[in-house]
Amino acid sequence: MNNEELQPLKKQPRAAKSNRSGTQDDVVYAHIFDVILEQRLAPGTKLSEEALGEIFGVSRTIIRRSLSRLAHEGVVLLRPNRGAVVASPSVEEARQIFYARRMVERAITELAVEHATTEQINELRQMVKDEQDSFSRGDRGAGIRLSGEFHLKLAEAAKNTPLISFQRSLVSQTSLIIAQYESGGRSHCSYDEHNELLDAIEARDTTKAVHLMMHHMDHIDSKLNLDEESASDDLHAVFSHLLQTKKKPGRSAANR
């Protein structure tokens, strides 16, 4: 199976109602965003509205709205008359995205040193612990997602709304690039580096915090090559955790 086409679909049971809150659009968007952060959805995968509608038990209208949001963030490409695919950044696009990510991370770190509250720092430390626990029990996908969410939560601590929006797009695009180009043993953001960064932020040491963040980005960048691809292009396999959740008495699938 290549990245452009999916095999003919077989009828699947509708996914049970998610434990996520929000509108149906929000739920679908969040699940797709999560599997991108977890590097489980391969760049170039065709996002069939029919398959996604089956998986989530919602209408194509809701699927289209969710895909449109993801396209706005640069992680989905909407192709006229050919449907949507997961973005597949070129080498040059990958370099530009990583450059932009470095600039945004620098600004976020500087502002987080200035504005992060004790409560936010404690929340970030808990995220690092959860990330470490996920990798320790072999749940690599959850660990990768938490690593990305750490950077999103840090952006919130910076208290700059445009930077939060930029960061959300850049973190998800970065995950696609790593899934497409990372070499070796498919490393992840180091929770030790995250903890050291939080120590510097808590100490209000801007110079050290920025240095640690740039070192952290260097570490991620050093793992990339131009040849390897990974992840999956099978939508039903990627969202199997939803399809395997059986409907229980008193709970129903999301309405169309």
List the helices and strands and how they pair.
Layout: H1 24-37, E1 46-47, H2 49-56, H3 60-72, E2 76-79, E3 83-86, H4 91-115, H5 118-136, H6 140-157, H7 161-181, H8 191-202, H9 206-221, H10 235-238, H11 240-243
Antiparallel strand pairs: 1-3, 2-3
Helix pairs in contact: 1-3, 1-6, 2-3, 4-6, 4-7, 4-9, 5-6, 5-8, 6-7, 8-9
Q: Work out the number of β strands.
A: 3
Domain module count: 2
Looking at the structure, the CATH topology of the largest domain is: Four Helix Bundle (Hemerythrin (Met), subunit A)
What is the multimeric organization of the chains shown?
A: single chain
Helix-strand string: HEHHEEHHHHHHHH
CATH superfamily label of the largest domain: GntR ligand-binding domain-like
CATH class of the largest domain: Mainly Alpha
Q: Low-confidence parts lasting 5 or more residues at pLDDT below 50?
A: 1-19, 226-230, 252-256
Count of DSSP H/I helices: 11
CATH architecture of the largest domain: Up-down Bundle
What separation lies between the terminal Cα atoms? 30 Å
Shape: globular
